[in-house]
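Feature request, filed as a ticket because there's no other form

It would be nice if the structure record came with a short human-readable summary line next to the tokens. Right now we just get the raw output. Example of a typical job, pasted below so the devs can see what we mean:
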Amino acid sequence: MSFMLRFDRHMAGHWAGRYDEDLTPVERTAENHILGEIVPRARAVGFLSHAHFFELCCWKSPRSKRRCLMNTEQFVEEVTRVALSTPSEQLRIEALTLLSGVGWPTASVILHFCHREPYPILDFRALWSLGMDSRPDAYDFEFWWGYTLHCRGLAQELGTDMRTLDKALWQYSKENQASWDY
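Raw output as currently delivered:
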């Protein structure tokens, strides 16, 4: 798998800024809540509460609400505790997919916001901005880990953090991607 950034590397800050400008007041409030409350608490206690898990899931994919609600508080706590503490990268991401309503993209959101290590959000927009013309038939650990390592290297090369890179990748696609056949 090979990734190639579709925009000039020096424009990452520009595209991330456009992301911030495009947020509605409701989206801005949700993102501020994630960054100001959910992230610090999850990092401090080492797991997500069901309420915070649900908010992250809805932020990524509102369609998953019903399935995410099916998880018990205890199951959410235990699964997220494992994912946020294990040294195994594969267990870290795949454990999260045990939760109802959580696929690879939503699992990546949980790691992106709640883990101390930098993780990109797995999203069709980001993939397109990295040169993929179609998304993979299915996500697996090998794909996700390659994507993660590429994004970590790119963020370092650009001298930025993962959140800024994620915003730039997403926004560039939003403004430039004509369509993507699913």
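Something like this underneath would help us a lot:
Residues 9-176 form one domain.
The two ends are 19 Å apart (CA to CA).
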